[in-house]
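Weekly modeling sync, notes
Attendees: S.R. (lead), two postdocs, one rotation student

Agenda item 3: backlog of single-chain predictions. S.R. asked that every request posted to the team notebook include the full sequence so nobody has to chase files. The rotation student volunteered to paste the first one in as an example of the format we agreed on. Action items at the bottom.

Example entry:
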Amino acid sequence: MMQRMGMQVKQVDDVTRVIIESASKRIVIDAPEVAIVTVQGQTVYQVGGGTAREEGPAGASTQEDAKLVASQAGVSVDEAAKALQQSGGDLAQAIIVLKQKKTS
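Predicted structure, as returned to the notebook:
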């Protein structure tokens, strides 16, 4: 019936996290259900379920976090920023991964 109305829904599998960033905050949704809904040529991304948390300003905390991780792991801020991105913003995990790379 939805196809007759010009609506298509496609479930996106294996989504682990959705991050919505604005100038003033960051919303992180872990383990969400995501669907892509297309109606009359318009695409809508529907995010439901999961566990949501709000964080402070995205840019400021990210730069400060990268500096902290860099100093703790003994690497450059760029390397720390990449590790933070890969760890989903988990400072401790980023430090551990970077220290393990240095000892390998």
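Discussion: group reviewed the output briefly. The longest helix spans residues 58-73.
Action items: rotation student to repeat for the remaining queue; S.R. to check formatting next week.
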